[in-house]
Batch of 2 targets.
Target 1
Amino acid sequence: MNRLFCVIPCYNEEAVLPETSRRLQNKMESLIKSGKISEDSRVIFVNDGSKDNTWNMISELHDKNPLFQGINLSKNMGHQNALLAGLMTAKDLCDAAISMDADLQDDIDAIDEMVEKFLAGADVVYGVRSKRTTDTFFKRFTAESYYKLVNALGAKTVYNHADYRLMSRRALLGLSEFGEVNLFLRGIVPMVGYNVDYVYYERAERFAGESKYPLKKMLSFAIEGITSLSTKPIKIITGLGMFIFFVSIVVLIYSLIRHFTGNTIPGWTTTVLSVWAIGGLIMISLGVIGEYIGKIYLETKNRPRFIIESYIADENDEAVFKKNEHR
Ligand code: UDP
Ligand code: MG
């Protein structure tokens, strides 16, 4: 029988949790009733250092219904790390795990189809947004251009797919082999391989509460995505440097010819311009290189990607939760 786990990262989500848990409960119960998933399937809420009542609510949910379990991170560690904490706990307990945002932007009804595709043999089922009409124009434009950019830079991500996906146990075990600290799951999951399938859904508006991704976080997430997956920016800079070097040789030959034919005019404009242009290029290059050195620095430190402070689980599952507690 197939044991399904849903992993939901939650950061200050008290406004949506009651509705999210209600809908998830209905969904899980109907799947259990239809015999597609086993009765001991579970939902894991990962509390990512919320400052509001989220953790207490998760604990109350568990008291009312053992379907709900919880992981409490020791502080806010970010969406990706929270998700990983949940998935790495689920991998030793489930046959398949679905990751989903807490805010109900991902259509819960797509779970049926994901499970269907899993039962048909898929190891990774990506939830893909068929439309983004509910996102603001700005968010849609930046997100879609970003997907294109990341793919052009050589990292394979699934277009219009966020972190709503199903992964089989063996895909999760594959994921656990990736030890990177700079975590960008969307780029890593496609590297795991196995059988892949897609489910399309319409992205809804956030049910309640505010986005936990302000522009600043979104930008750093975007840069993270590129530099943690691809080294192409370095290659582009090198190519650019070579090109400019080539141009400078041409300019040198040209100015020598002018010099010897005797009609030189002191070129103030070109001098000033080139100083600025090259200065700018050097600074960009240093910035890009610095970005990667920062990454290397963090990877070599081998810091933990998440730290679990406490958990709520059934007796049967407790051992696995405990094992992950001090990581
Ligand atoms: N989230 C988290 N830690 C964070 C920020 C966000 O666990 O530091 C969770 C959040 O609770 C939600 C999901 O990540 O379940 C996606 O966040 P949000 O919906 O705010 O992002 P958006 O949809 O606006 O990009
Ligand atoms: Mg959202």
Target 2
Amino acid sequence: MNIETLGVIGAGQMGSGIAHVAALAGRNVILHDVLEAAREGGRRTIERNLARQVEKGKVEAGARDAALSRITLAPSLDDLAGCQLVVEAAVEDEAVKRDLFRKLDAVLPDTAILASNTSSISITRLAAVTRQPQNFIGMHFMNPVPVMQLVEIIRGIATSDETTAAVVSLAKEMGKTPVECRDFPGFVSNRILMPMLNEAVFAVHEGVATPDAVDTIMKLGMNHPMGPLTLADFIGLDTCLSILRVLHQGLGDDKYRPCPLLVQMVDAGWLGRKAGRGFYTYSGPGGDRVQKG
Ligand code: CAA
Ligand code: NAD
């Protein structure tokens, strides 16, 4: 299937990254978010990250300008009607995603592919709210999208070979390495990553060490590019908590029980870097770290 125009839902960290990479790969992108401020913020993030790539000599100035001209901000879901593929990257909340896919199903032609960038939620269950579940798939990009190589491809029970082939081929054209896995809670990436991040939160909760000490131990001791609490702040603590709840409920094992400190921080609105405060404090939403936790 030829995908010329791609819709992206959610202009947060992931949606803006997906739009950025798809536009650089020559696709027209319609970027939708419910919030105007998020749409404008998404565009600014894309401009900033493309400028950085131009400065580093990774992208030509002409390619940046062409990519930016291919991205259209869309206030309404109806604006996605002409897309051959829509990648949903709204919040990690099953009710929100189900509602979005129900509406999209009514707007798009029967041939369109619907993909979710969900970190953990059942692709089979999301597909079940649409009329064409064979056209539904998980296309799980990693953060930051312009940098990370992997796209985890998750087939629901009904996903067709044609849908999988189209999405695998698009991921490769976006310069990524697609890897397939089955539809289980948290798939592979977050089933393995989140218990480690949760354990790091427990270490702080139980007073074993400060956030900075935990991060330094894991960075210098295990050669991780970011310590687990810096990474949790980077992902978003709300997203980490939602994923852990899906793992806990879906796999039925208490080893996935979210740390009470994580729950409390999310309750307080300390969602990590995107909120300006998490385990560390940042200069503002999405800003640089200014002091230790
Ligand atoms: N857009 C474009 N380029 C970016 C970028 C962005 N948003 N962020 C960083 N870069 C580029 C930088 O320009 C730099 O390029 P060069 O190599 O050409 O210099 C390169 O990436 C490295 O960046 P920095 O030098 O600024 O910083 P760094 O060396 O600390 O690397 C990092 C930053 C790549 C984010 C690194 O810290 C890292 O890999 N962290 C771990 C990220 C990770 O684990 N992601 C997965 C999260 S889990 C997930 O995504 C799944 C889920 O469902 C939750
Ligand atoms: P984010 O909080 O940065 O952005 C989410 C965006 O969705 C916001 O701009 C919000 O306004 C928008 N939104 C909420 N409800 C909406 C609706 N009904 N219609 C349209 N837009 C709506 O979140 P994010 O980190 O970009 O995560 C988005 C998705 O990607 C989640 O499913 C998350 O699990 C997944 N994901 C996140 C990461 C990560 O590291 N943060 C990595 C891979 C996958």
